[in-house]
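Q: Okay, next protein. This is 4-hydroxy-tetrahydrodipicolinate reductase from Inconstantimicrobium porci. I've checked the sequence twice, so it should be correct. Can you predict the 3D structure?
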Amino acid sequence: MIKILLHGCCGKMGKVVSNLTEKYDNLEITAGVDKFGTNDMKYPVFKSLEECTSDYDVMIDFSRADALEGLLNFSLKNKKPIILCSTGYSNEQLKLLDETSKKLPIFRSANMSVGINLMNMLLRKVAPILNDSYDIEIIEEHHNQKVDSPSGTAIMLADSIKNSIDTDANYVYGRSGHKKREKHDIGIHAIRGGSIVGNHDVIFAGEGEVIKFTHNALSRDLFAVGALKAAIYMAKVTENGLYNMEDVIGLVF
Ligand SMILES: NC(=O)C1=CN([C@@H]2O[C@H](COP(=O)(O)OP(=O)(O)OC[C@H]3O[C@@H](n4cnc5c(N)ncnc54)[C@H](OP(=O)(O)O)[C@@H]3O)[C@@H](O)[C@H]2O)C=CC1
Ligand SMILES: O=C(O)C1=N[C@H](C(=O)O)C[C@H](O)C1
């Protein structure tokens, strides 16, 4: 049995992960941590990591970027792998994450769905071919409760494109004003409204044609399933380092 500590257990994703875990015979949530706190869960919920005394094998986090430092220190102290699903990290936080991964197995992915990770892999192949003659724009849509913009997934997709081409792409967020598009811009646009779970379009606009890669998440279950698969994977990992969803789904191309 793999014992999971769920950080951010009372939020939208925390609740979905809690429900889905019950379908797995080999997984059990032994405790949760959430600022919000509640007694509604089937496991003990602590209001902070400092109060949490539960034994666990792997921690899953769906909370906020500002929780990162505390999560890393707690995981280092307990010598247990951590799965970071939260988004909105700053460059300094990403640097800290990289440094800490030399001392701890850390998993991070801005999107736990198989579909987005497959699309990300395809973009790495396609972008170097299309980059010269097509303009690249990314549009993401999410619910009206999301705090970080653009989405972590949009940044992940943009970074994959940027790292796969030999020109130095420049990110332009939510374009406005009086200025033509520059050739090496990658536009990144965020839409917020209602209960949209999470949609991502990557557009390659050329002369006389547009090629579009689209991923629409129809339910939060697919993120939760990805997090639980990552938990099963990370519980067995012994080497320190930074892992992601491609390790879990075995996308080696
Ligand atoms: N990687 C992926 O596939 C996905 C990532 N996400 C990301 O996961 C995160 C959570 O999403 P979602 O569940 O929709 O958000 P919610 O706001 O619904 O849930 C977050 C929960 O974490 C709590 N929380 C916030 N800060 C802390 C903290 N410092 N310590 C402990 N608990 C805290 C919140 O409490 P309170 O409400 O009191 O602040 C809330 O209960 C976001 O960053 C989101 O972008 C979401 C979906 C998929
Ligand atoms: O906040 C959300 O809801 C989501 N956040 C992630 C992101 O920022 O990319 C992933 C998913 O699209 C849902």
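A: Here is a summary of the prediction. The longest strand covers residues 198-206. Residues 87, 110-111, 142, 146, 151-153, 198, 217 surround LZUJQKHR (ligand 2) (CB under 6 Å).
Q: Noted. On to the next one.
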